């Protein structure tokens, strides 16, 4: 069997409960205990939960109140993002010992293309195992990994044997793997889309594969084409060694809901200061300012304005944010405010030249 899609050796490394694991690493008294990073018992949102807490249904993005209700023994830990960033850089330095083709998705996960690698090791499976062992031996943290012929399958595979495990999906196993996969586990199929697919009789990859391109286009628009190809193992997205930010922002969740615009303006000034710091550090400016408002009932609203010039100054950012705040009457008390800047001076307008696909034999050992 042949395919005109270039096969690569892709590893997706995903740290296990990263923020919570770092906290347990730095404070041994927290080991083996249910902890939640971020939020607080009465106010705030959980950023991460240890595996001990997950057993009680505690999840990221859950309110601190509900998390504590699910797990009365839950310990809240204040996030230390500078520490997580420090550890993340050390993890990436390990990645770069094997390949320069590293695409970070966040502080705790990344894609690596090891088709050609610095170690001259033909086995992506063994490289993933070695990387995970080094992360544990050098940093004391566990990582899981997925290995396959493209980013889509590697990311799905990294979830299979979590925590502290890995899974390889070889080329000859790809089609069966995808056909047997529950549709809710497909990367890019969220909760709403999953429910829609269920109503259409699509429960597994095999069900999805049975649908025509026309059917998927008519029911899912542009995403239909994506679903049509990935279920056939076709996902020709190369690992990008550097990602250009599309937006930069800062936000704050408050311990008490705010109902006064005067108090909100004080908070916005602090947020604008932080955003300016991040912009200057990255040497970036932008034209589109977006104000993010999350109400006490968790309803999320955004208001945006695009200027004719680039800005990075906190005063100009704050001035526009104030204008957006007063643009409409507030619907409720506010638990979170955020400001972000998009339409950046780093945006690339030109199209990248397309790579020619090469015909390769499916005999390809991982």
TrEMBL record:
Q: Write down the InterPro entries for this protein, in alphabetical order.
A: DNA/RNA_pol_sf, DNA_pol_Y-fam_lit_finger_sf, DNA_pol_Y-fam_little_finger, DNA_polymerase-Y, DNApol_IV, PolY_HhH_motif, Rev_trsase/Diguanyl_cyclase, UmuC
- Active-site residue list: 109
Top-level division of the source organism's lineage: Bacteria
Signal sequence range: none
> What chemistry does it catalyse, as a reaction equation?
DNA(n) + a 2'-deoxyribonucleoside 5'-triphosphate = DNA(n+1) + diphosphate
Detail which positions bind Mg(2+). 14, 108
Q: What's this protein's function?
A: Poorly processive, error-prone DNA polymerase involved in untargeted mutagenesis. Copies undamaged DNA at stalled replication forks, which arise in vivo from mismatched or misaligned primer ends. These misaligned primers can be extended by PolIV. Exhibits no 3'-5' exonuclease (proofreading) activity. May be involved in translesional synthesis, in conjunction with the beta clamp from PolIII.
Q: What protein is this chain from?
A: DNA polymerase IV
Give the classification, highest ranks.
Answer: Bacteria, Pseudomonadati, Bacteroidota, Flavobacteriia, Flavobacteriales
